[in-house]
């Protein structure tokens, strides 16, 4: 089975499983009076929503580039990862306030029902998370969805432990405590994804040492100087760059060979998949590697 079809099948399986978990936990939470189960049911419902979004983003992201979208549609997955992570943070805040409220207004909880519902939910959540684990290593969108499901699995472990304490020791206050701990964990896992997606969407430069780039390019014999270097990410895997290089007054056929050398260096050492190169003789010579937009505009106006 090819990779797109395999990914689609995983998303469909996880979505179906998650819908079943949601209803199962909601009924179990109402019957047992467990806030942590009811909260986890709402969490699973949000997971179902996020999985559907992730699937749609995956389909859109695999569309071919067009003249109007020359870099393709890979940013759809970044936008979805951001939305999913924001939803997770909002859910964590909801669970936090609900947990605090339940501590102040305790209610009876049936530990036995809570325990068995949590056991089954844990197995189902973990199975769903494992279905997406492989694809989460190099895809922020799938990683956000994977973290949704993994956080549900951890929440179920907390509910299981809480159910044991409630059943044997009648410690009903442990139910909202678990809810609060889960909410904090969800926020902790989500905030780095939000930070990374914002950096990509704001065209932030990847973690590349520009001075190393300059030295590597200056090692190519024909290059006299390097300046106006910019790098950015289309998504977490595709890096782009543009750079100006000062060369001798060479025929175009010779310049193309130098271009190939530049592309090979940037691909091999910095994983830059696409680079736009501007060759110059003396224009911009000894300029800084990275200039502000205002500096570059001044250079253009002054013919430097």
Can you describe what's shown?
There is one protein chain. The protein has 304 residues and is mainly alpha-helical. Helix content is 68%, strand content 9%. It contains 9 helices and 3 strands, in the order αααααααββαβα. The chain has helices at residues 3-32, 35-61, 75-104, 111-133, 140-169, 174-201, 210-218, 252-270, 293-302, and strands at residues 225-233, 239-246, 272-280. A 3-stranded mixed sheet has the order 1-2-3, covered by helices on one side. Helix 8 (252-270) links the parallel strand 2 (239-246) and strand 3 (272-280). Helix 3 packs parallel to helix 5, helix 4 packs antiparallel against helix 5 and helix 5 packs antiparallel against helix 6 (174-201). It is elongated. The relative contact order is 0.11.
Task: Please tally the helical runs, counting DSSP H or I stretches of 4 or more residues.
Answer: 9
CATH level 1 class label of the largest domain: Mainly Alpha
The CATH architecture category of the largest domain equals Up-down Bundle
How do the strands line up in the largest sheet? 1-2-3
* Average pLDDT figure: 81
Task: Write down the domain tally.
Answer: 2
Query: Beta fraction of the residues?
Result: 5-15%
Q: Structural class, from helix and strand content? A: mainly alpha
Question: CATH topology of the largest domain, what is it called?
Answer: Alpha-lytic protease prodomain-like
Given the C-alpha coordinates, what overall shape results? Answer: elongated
Distance from first to last alpha carbon: 55 Å
* SSE topology string: HHHHHHHEEHEH
Q: What's the helical proportion of residues?
A: 55-70%
Oligomer: single chain
Largest sheet: 3 strands, mixed
Question: Regions with pLDDT < 50 over 5+ consecutive residues?
Answer: none
Counted beta strands: 3
Rg calc: 26 Å
Subcellular location: Membrane
Transmembrane segments: 12-35, 41-60, 81-100, 112-132, 144-167, 173-194
GO molecular function: zinc ion transmembrane transporter activity
Family: Belongs to the cation diffusion facilitator (CDF) transporter (TC 2.A.4) family. SLC30A subfamily.
């Amino acid at each position: 089975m090819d990779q797109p079809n395999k990914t689609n099948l995983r998303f469909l399986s996880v979505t179906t499983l998650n819908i079943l978990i949601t209803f199962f936990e909601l009924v179990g939470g109402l019957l047992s009076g467990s806030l942590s189960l009811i909260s986890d049911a709402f969490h699973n419902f949000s997971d179902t929503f996020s999985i559907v979004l992730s699937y749609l983003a995956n389909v859109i992201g695999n569309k071919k580039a067009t003249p109007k979208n020359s870099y393709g549609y890979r940013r759809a997955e970044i936008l979805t990862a951001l939305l999913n992570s924001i939803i997770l943070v909002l859910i964590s805040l909801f669970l936090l306030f609900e947990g605090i409220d339940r501590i102040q207004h305790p209610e009876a909880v049936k530990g036995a029902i809570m325990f068995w519902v949590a056991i089954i939910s844990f197995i189902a959540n973990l199975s769903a998370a494992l279905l997406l684990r492989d694809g989460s290593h190099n895809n922020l969108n799938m990683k956000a969805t994977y973290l949704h499901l993994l956080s549900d699995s951890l929440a179920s472990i907390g509910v299981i432990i809480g159910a044991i304490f409630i059943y044997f020791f009648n410690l009903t206050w442990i139910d909202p405590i678990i809810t609060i701990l889960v909410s904090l964990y969800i926020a902790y896992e989500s905030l780095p994804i939000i930070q990374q997606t914002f950096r990509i969407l704001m065209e932030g430069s990847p973690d590349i040492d520009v001075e190393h780039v300059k030295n590597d390019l200056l090692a190519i014999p024909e290059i006299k100087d390097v300046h106006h270097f910019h790098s950015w990410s289309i998504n977490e895997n595709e890096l782009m760059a543009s750079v100006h290089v000062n060369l001798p007054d060479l025929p175009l056929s010779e310049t193309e060979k130098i271009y190939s050398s530049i592309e090979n260096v940037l691909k091999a050492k910095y994983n830059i998949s696409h680079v736009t190169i501007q060759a110059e003789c003396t224009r911009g010579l000894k300029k800084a590697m990275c200039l502000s937009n205002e500096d570059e505009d001044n250079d253009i106006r002054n013919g430097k």
